[in-house]
């Protein structure tokens, strides 16, 4: 039973690093001054470029991209012009200008490529642009879902992993955090896992890299493990993210939680 609890705890430490969606501001830190606003709705992305023409003046392009099924988003690029902003609106002119592709490499970084008719192709490595810190601290209730497979011991496989937990998050500024998962569902009740480490803030997301330890009724349930939480972020009601670590198994788990407002 103890070994099973250890495996379940470690399940909370492996995942698919791809973010659910990529809405944010993107730029190249080495080329501050231009960038792209990206808003995603399901499998469609709308991009608004703030870039410059050959004369150095702002040039307005937008793109509408769709998930092509391979992990990247592709579509058409448009040039737009409109009414001088102080004047009554007389409409806009939209002209097909080329194509664009947004290819995520992880939840935080991507390659942006766009071809402008008569000009050529521009390819840039971009990342989410960090604006302000988020408050992660709080007491939450939530659940985890995913799978644990390919274990050396087949009895440890859980292809349909599910859990419920209470979660306490404490935060040290924008630099570190500790998450304590106290499981309350029937299968995992009594298991407590603490994940702690420094934070890296990239755009709307955080990454935590540190260590995890679990116990049952105060008794350690296995050794301390390396842990990474990717795509860790606030939502309108709480926090969510993906947690990774491997212990002879392949696992993928997403957790989501709601803030307990009465605390």
List keywords for this structure.
263 residues, mainly beta, Lipocalin, 2 domains, eight-stranded antiparallel beta barrel, eight-stranded antiparallel β-barrel, 1 helix, 17 strands, 60% strand, elongated, disordered N terminus
Q: Could you characterize the architecture of this molecule?
A:
The protein folds into two domains: 2-11 and 132-259, Lipocalin (Beta Barrel); 24-128, no CATH class. The protein has one helix and 17 strands. It has one helix at residues 2-11, and strands at residues 24-27, 35-41, 44-52, 58-67, 73-82, 92-104, 109-116, 120-128, 138-149, 158-172, 176-183, 191-202, 205-216, 219-220, 225-234, 238-244, 250-259. The strands form two sheets. Strands 1-2-3-4-5-6-7-8 form an eight-stranded antiparallel barrel.
Topology:
Layout (H helix, E strand, L loop, with lengths): L1 H10 L12 E4 L7 E7 L2 E9 L5 E10 L5 E10 L9 E13 L4 E8 L3 E9 L9 E12 L8 E15 L3 E8 L7 E12 L2 E12 L2 E2 L4 E10 L3 E7 L5 E10 L4
Structural class: mainly beta
Q: Based on CA inertia axes, which overall geometry fits?
A: elongated
Indicate the percent of residues in helices: under 10%
Largest sheet: 8 strands, antiparallel, barrel
Instruction: Give the low-confidence spans.
Output: 1-18
Please count the beta strands (DSSP E, at least 2 residues each): 17
What is the rounded distance between the termini? Answer: 33 Å
Write down the domain tally: 2
Order of helices and strands: HEEEEEEEEEEEEEEEEE
Q: Could you please say which CATH topology of the largest domain applies here?
A: Lipocalin
Mean pLDDT: 87
Strands of the largest sheet, in order across it?
Answer: 1-2-3-4-5-6-7-8
Rg on CA atoms, Å: 22 Å
Corresponding CATH superfamily of the largest domain:
Quinohemoprotein amine dehydrogenase alpha subunit, domain 2
Supply the number of helical segments.
Answer: 1
């Amino acid at each position: 039973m103890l070994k099973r609890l250890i495996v379940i705890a470690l399940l909370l430490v492996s995942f698919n690093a791809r973010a659910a969606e990529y809405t944010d501001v993107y730029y190249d830190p080495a080329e501050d001054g231009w960038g792209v606003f990206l808003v995603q709705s399901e499998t469609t992305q709308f991009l608004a470029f703030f870039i410059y023409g050959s004369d150095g003046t702002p040039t307005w392009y937008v793109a509408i991209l769709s998930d092509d099924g391979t992990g990247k988003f592709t579509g058409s690029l448009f040039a737009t012009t409109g009414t001088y902003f102080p004047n009554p609106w007389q409409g806009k002119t939209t002209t097909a200008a080329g194509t664009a592709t947004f290819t995520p490499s992880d939840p935080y970084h991507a390659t942006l490529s766009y071809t402008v008719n008569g000009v050529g192709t521009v390819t840039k490595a971009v990342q989410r642009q960090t604006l302000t810190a988020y408050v992660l601290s709080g007491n939450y209730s939530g659940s985890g879902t995913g799978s644990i497979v390919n274990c050396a011991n087949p009895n440890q496989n859980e292809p349909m992993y599910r859990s419920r937990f209470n979660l306490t998050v404490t935060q040290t500024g924008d630099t570190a955090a500790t998450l304590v998962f106290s499981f309350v569902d029937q299968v995992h009740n009594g298991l407590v896992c603490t994940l702690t480490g420094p934070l890296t803030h990239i755009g709307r997301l955080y990454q935590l890299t540190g260590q995890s330890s679990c116990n049952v009724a105060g008794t350690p349930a296995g050794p301390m493990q390396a842990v990474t939480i990717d795509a860790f972020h606030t939502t309108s009601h709480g926090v969510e993210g993906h947690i990774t670590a491997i212990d002879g198994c392949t696992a993928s788990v997403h957790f989501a939680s709601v803030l307990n407002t009465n605390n």
